[in-house]
Amino acid sequence: MIKKLFLVSLVASQLMVSCSSDDSKEETPTEQTRDEQIAAILKQPYSKLTPADQKIKLEAEANEMFVQLDKSKSSGAIEATQNLNRLLEISEVDVTNGKNSNKIEDILNVSGVYGIYTWDNTAKTWVKTASTTELKFVFPAKKTQTTNNAILSVKAVASDVKVKSIDTYGKWTYDAVKQQYIQSPSVYDYFFLPTSTDAILTIDNTTAATFTQTAKYSSKNQSPDEFTYKMVLNDGYTWEMNGKKGTENTSKALFTYNGKTLLDFSAGSSANIDALINDDKLVQYRGKANGLIKLMDNFIIVAETDLATEAADDAALEKSISYPAYPDSYNAKANYKEYYTAVNAYNKKYSEGTATIFNKNIKLVLVSKKDGTKIADIVLRSEKSDYDYTTTLPVWDTKNSYWSHNGTGESFTRAYYEEEYYLKFNDNTEVSFSTYFSVGFEKLDAKFQDFIKAFERK
After folding, report:
1. Quick one: which of 13, 281, 282, 317 has the most CB atoms within 10 Å?
2. pTM of the full predicted structure?
3. Contact present, 307 and 287 (Cβ < 8 Å)
């Protein structure tokens, strides 16, 4: 669900619905709940503009948000955070004294672990210095630098929630006596989740960013009842998130630049989080979810999904079709053409089923905040991909009694399918994203891709 809602925000940023800031317009009443806001928005009429006219309008006004987003690329704090993630990928560190790979987000989510890790640019590795009081990373702020001029210092207060995390998977070895493969026991790490974490990023001895997060727990699992996170950059950007678990789970996020809202995200679900942690296959605990995404003063995206029904439909799809069994390579009567034809049919049916399930259970709507109209629905369609390839079928080798892939057999095209997002306008016209944004939006898309890379969780 998180990925799907993030996708919605990506779509919104590419569309940049055709609205400029207008402070004279009434905002959605703050006293309304998210459900009430969504219900009111979905009642709005569709824009009367044709898809072609809408595209011209979007293209003319789309740069407004990217002017703001583009500024983020010059943020020294974001660049340093990106580089730390890159270095942690080049050389893994183990803050839990086991063999876990830890990324920057993991560093903020453990407590009671210490050590000073200094980047050795020559050896391309982290050098650890023992410490009993602090957890610190010393590294170059930029990819092009070789001097360590950035420091990320982290302090955390432990909760009583102890997490068991696999450290090293047991190895499989063959026992000649028992004539079977045996796996040695896995090794685990144990650590306590934090109730609060504070981190400071300095560059050239000047504070560049601060990170704070808090969590409250009642159940003895890794899911907090309440969670807050805030990142403040010295160049004007602030990113805040908070979440609360309960009968209704809620999550909010706010991204601002010098006090101006760039992105405002609100979502909720009725999922039973604790039950799903114990067994995520229990679809009845997934419930429903919805979300609102507001981009600057222009645009709103509405997302509604039935998670329980979607999961049940996914399971039903898996049961309804089976991947064809591979032919016996030593059976002269095996029919490879029939097999690959069945595979093509399977791929097509699975892709079509995936799109059907999405359209049934997930409703995405793009809305103009200024005009008070819906721009388009977002739907999913199954299409043949561009990755089809033609190969040759195997031929029977009479001498060796097996099917040989020697390149002399009949030609056969392997077909693959993928799901494409479409904009469905008020006149029921459907236009694929790839077509709609094929001209005029490439630079905007590239800008957005550059921007989100700074916030991706690796």
Report:
1. 13
2. 0.58
3. yes
Query: Could you tell me the two tokens for 360?
Result: 């049934």
Among 54-63, 157-166, 397-406, 414-423, whose mean pLDDT is lowest? 54-63
β-partners of residue 295 are 263, 299
DSSP for 98-115, written as a single string: SS----HHHHTT-BS--E
Supply angle C-alpha 54, 56, 61, rounded to 5. 95
Give the whole-angstrom CA distance, residue 202 versus residue 205: 6
* Distance in angstroms (rounded) separating the CA atoms of residues 147 and 196: 31
> What angle separates helix 63-72 from helix 442-453, to the nearest 10 degrees?
30
For residues 194-233, one letter each, b for 16 or more C-beta atoms within 10 angstroms of the residue's C-beta and e for the rest, the string is bbbbbbbbbbeeeebbebbbbbebeeeeebbeebbbebbb
276 neighbors 1 (Cβ within 8 angstroms): no
Which tokens is 451 given?
Answer: 């921007």
Distances (CA, A) of 141 to 83, 93, 207, 455: 7, 18, 12, 16
Amino acid present at 399: K
Q: Please state, in angstroms and rounded to a whole number, the distance separating the CA atoms of residues 422 and 425.
A: 10
What is the pLDDT, as a whole number, of residue 50? 77
Please name the helix (run of DSSP H) or strand (run of DSSP E) that holds residue 190, with its range, or none. strand 187-203
> Torsions phi, psi of 131, nearest 5?
-150, 145
Two tokens at 16? 């940049």
Q: Which two tokens stand for residue 72?
A: 């983020």
3-state secondary structure of 59: helix
71-86 average pLDDT score:
78
Q: Where are the alpha helices (DSSP H) in 16-145?
A: 34-42, 51-61, 63-72, 76-90, 104-107
For residues 18 and 56, the answer to whether their CB atoms sit within 8 Å is no
> How confident is residue 98, by pLDDT bands cut at 50, 70 and 90?
very low
Q: Distance between CA atoms of 282 and 272, rounded to whole angstroms?
A: 10
* Mean per-residue pLDDT, 223-251: 81
**What span, in angstroms and rounded, lies between the C-alpha atoms of 137 and 119?**
8
Map tokens 């309304």 to a residue: 32
Residue 349 tokens, joined? 């049916």
Query: In whole angstroms, how far apart are CA 268 and each of 216, 305, 366, 457?
Result: 19, 10, 19, 21
